[in-house]
Amino acid sequence: MSSPSSSSISTLKPKRKTKKKHFVQQKVEVFRASDRVLSIFMWGVNHSMNDLSQVPIPVMLLPDDFKASTKIKVNNHFFNKENLPAQFKFKEYCPLVFRNLRERFGIEDQDYQVSLARSPPHKDEEGKCVGLLLTSYDRTLVVKEISSEEVEEMHNILSEYHQHIVTCHSSTLLPQFLSMYRVTVESEDTYLLVMRNVFSHRLPVHRKYDLKGSLLSREASYKEKVKELPTYKDADFLNNMQKIYVSDEEKEKMMEKLSRDLEFLVRMRIMDYSLLLGIHDVQRAEREEEEAEESSIEEEEEGEHDLAAAPSSTSPEGIAGYMKSFKAMGPGEFDPYVDVYATQSAAAAPRREVYFMGLIDVLTQYDTKKKAAHAAKAVKNGTGAEITTVHPEQYAKRFKEFITKIFA
After folding, report:
1. Where is the segment annotated Disordered (predicted)?
2. Which domains occur in the chain, in start order?
3. β-strands 207-211, 342-344: how paired?
4. Given 67, 89, 144, 370, which residue is catalytic?
5. Helices (DSSP H) in 9-71: which residue ranges?
6. Is the C-alpha dihedral spanning 256, 258, 264, 269 positive or negative?
7. pLDDT given at position 376
8. Coil, helix or strand for 110?
9. Backbone phi, then psi, for 313, in 5-degree steps?
10. Residue 210's beta-bridge partner residues?
11. pLDDT, greater one: 304 or 361
12. Is the dihedral of CA 145, 147, 152, 153 positive or negative?
């Protein structure tokens, strides 16, 4: 493969493109044409990680590192047209900062590179996101398309976010932000944010909730409920009489993390985030495993090629791969260094379960748009109504009160 025509390190300009992304149009087209974006993304990750491996690790990060970016522009090279277009651009934001964050989150760059670039990420069929929402082939990472406004918001909070991760020694429920990129093909920009998957690469989730701490319009639609794995909401959580059964010690640790993270979000004037909760039922998983073993050889062979049915990586490399060299995992077991959002149910719990809990969608600032929405909803529902668009302090207080009650 020919090398790119130009590669440079530059500083982000304060002035940003005003061009808005046409998400509605992309919703129809993105997966028909996503091979090009994904191919450039994988090529770019591979190229940028190889380049980064040659850059010495600095003693400390400097303010300029939080504004820096690397750009690669490729013009008229003889690529295989089926895989890569002749012209494209790839940009990585704040490479040294994100390398430092990956290190703090215990993710080796080589494993990160393998998890993203060895095989194409696959579409999250359950994703409610309008743009791309992908899971790496070994299911340890999530790749999410974000707007240019969210890129700007990430730049606004990145320095404080990094400091928060340092201060709390990476013990957080916040998303683990690992990198941010821009792919440009035919003058169309796609912004991609890579995070650690809240859910396990190995233990399937049997029930899933998106909790915001508000009951107003917070019930899953009928269309959502008939899905194989619906995303339920706050009202569903209460109606299902769902509870989280963890030890007092685990609950205390969880609430300490949450309190620290909420203080950070309030300080950053961030709101509208959710707690993503996934529940793995150990007994159900054991039954499903037994049924799979009893099924025909043909079905087993199909299952081996179906990443959704067999999510664990068969590769000895990648973020999840190294575990296989230690020991085989039993039912309901997980590696806390990989499944960092996982918690075992208490010994006295009515069911053996594993819970996955992490904060998501933390790039919405309480800006003019949200203030206007709050005013409109207050007029419609009354000032005392439980609306989701409230100022950050109120949002965090209500959110924390609700989350405290989800524990048995």
Report:
1. 1-20, 286-316
2. 32-197 (3.30.800.10), 201-290+332-407 (3.30.810.10)
3. unpaired
4. 144
5. 23-29, 34-52
6. negative
7. 58
8. helix
9. -75, 140
10. 276
11. 361
12. negative
Task: Note the pLDDT of residue 217.
Answer: 86
Active site residue 225: no
Q: Burial-class residue 41 by CB neighbours within 10 Å (0-12, 13-18, 19+).
A: buried
Instruction: Give the neighbor-by-neighbor strand order of the sheet with 231-232.
Output: 231-232, 207-211, 274-281, 353-360, 342-344
Question: Which residue matches tokens 């985030």?
Answer: 273
CB 386 within 8 A of CB 398: yes
Can 272 be counted among the known catalytic residues?
Answer: yes
Average pLDDT over residues 349-378: 79
User: Is the pLDDT reported for residue 71 higher than 90?
Assistant: yes
Q: Using the 8-state DSSP alphabet, how is residue 64 labeled? A: G
CA distance 90 to 325: 35
Assign 100 to helix, strand or coil.
Answer: helix
What's the half-sphere exposure (Cβ side, CA atoms, 13 Å) at 204?
A: 15
Tokens found for residue 74:
């490729």
Instruction: Name residue 192's beta-bridge partners.
Output: 145, 181
Q: Give percent helix, percent strand, percent coil of the chain, each to the nearest 5.
A: 40, 20, 45
CB-CB neighbours of 267 under 10 Å = 12
What integer pLDDT is reported at residue 313 of this predicted model?
39
Phi-psi region of 381 (alpha: psi -120 to 50; beta: other; left: phi over 0): alpha
pLDDT digits (tens, 9 = 90+) for 249-259: 999 999 999 99
The closest alpha carbon to 198, from 174, 218, 179, belongs to 174
Q: pLDDT of 158-207, one tens digit each?
A: 999 999 999 999 999 999 999 999 999 989 999 999 999 999 999 999 99
Residue bearing tokens 């959704």: 308
Q: CA dihedral in degrees (274, 232, 351, 300; nearest 10)?
A: -110
How much is the average pLDDT of 362-388? 60
Locus of tokens 């150990």: 282
Q: Tell me, what DSSP letter sits at residue 138?
A: T
Query: What does the alpha-carbon distance between residue 349 and residue 190 come to, in Å, rounded to a whole number?
Result: 45
154: which 2 tokens? Answer: 């990430």
Instruction: Identify which of 171, 172, 193, 168 has the alpha carbon closest to the alpha carbon of residue 182.
Output: 193
Annotated catalytic residue within 65, 111, 210, 272: 272
